[in-house]
Amino acid sequence: MTLTPALGTPHPTLLGVDVIWFATLLSGIAAFMVLLAIYAATSVRDPMAKRVKALNDRREQLKAGITASTSKRRAKLVQRNDTADRMRVLLSSLKVLQDSQLKAAQVKLMQAGIRSKEWAVAVIFGRMVLPVVVGGLAATWVYGLDAFPSWAPWKHSMFVCAALALGYKAPDIFLKNKISKRSDAIRKGLPDALDLLVICAEAGLTVDVAFHRVARELGRAYPELGDEFALTAIELGFLTDRRSAFENLATRVALDAIKGVTTTMVQTEKYGTPLASALRVLSAEFRNDRMMRAEEKAARLPAIMTVPLILFILPTLFVVILGPAACSIKDAFVDGGH
To answer: Which of 10, 30, 201, 317 has its Cα between 20 and 30 A from that of 23?
Structure first.
């Protein structure tokens, strides 16, 4: 660091950078971060507001679908998507739209938290179009623009094949990622939800009212779980078969724990077994499972931290500890030479 005390001379520099300019830049960044933090704190939105609106629309659709007497009134409930209709017509004309694939895509969309079934056509359309687009771009880049001239021909072919496979699997990878994240979020809040269900059952509330209460209480902490419980409560109130509501919940959530809860609820509805005791046992099991998962992650932490420790922490530690000693040894050798 060089300092120039005389007046009218340039400002002091640090590693060739003007200190005043550097301090001004840091001050600007700090002020921007403070303003950003204030904005984030004052503009917090309820994560359940949009979900509750969608669920209320679903309730109105169920109510109107049960009481409607003509097909015209039911048709008004369904909002058509022109883009999805065009994709459906194209896929049907090419004879590639199968009912089994459509149902499987709809189930995955529900498990990912996407309620619109029309997106299932987009998923199948993406499987057909993305390989052509991505593979065509990769082939143009490799063969047309000669992107990798040093590669062997078989490497070019493997690159294009990998692009084709990536384009075909991209929709499934996207849905699988969303399903995994949503399932983990639901798994974290399930023990607390079961505890609240036990309290509601012991207080004498009915099952649908208990689900409504749990969805309202846990909506902020676990929006995904609150969304599913609220939709289940709506279906319990409007579907003629209560078992269908629980089966729909098990279908919408890709978790074995949810399947266990729905099985317990169905057996309780069928045989009249005590609901509170069964849910209390399930809650204890889920809490033990959550604790075991946390212990498993803690046990894997030393192995995961080994590489960052060797690459980033130990070299810095060696420099801090051995640096002064090395400088002292060097000075001693220099003084001894003189």
So the answer is: 317
Asked whether the CA dihedral 235, 52, 206, 272 is positive or negative, the reply is positive
Mean of pLDDT over the chain: 79
Tell me the DSSP string of 102-157.
HHHHHHHHHHTT---TTHHHHHHHHHHHHHHHHHHHHHIIIIIS-S-TTS-HHHHH
Q: How far apart are CA 232 and CA 49, in angstroms?
A: 17
- The count of other CB atoms within 10 Å of the CB of residue 260 is 15
Q: Got the DSSP string for 156-168?
A: HHHHHHHHHHHHH
Cα-atom radius of gyration of the chain, to the nearest Å?
31
Tokens of 314: 């130990």
SS3 of residue 44 by DSSP: coil
Q: Which of 45-54, 83-92, 211-220, 233-242 is least confident?
A: 45-54
Question: Can you tell me whether residue 5 is helix, strand or coil?
Answer: coil
Local structure of 279: helix, strand or coil = helix
Confidence grade of residue 67 (pLDDT, cut at 50, 70, 90): very low
In sequence order, what DSSP letters do the residues of 283-336 get, joined into one string? HHHHHHHHHHHHHHHHHHHHHHHHHHIIIIIHHHHHHHHHHHHHHHHHHHHHHH
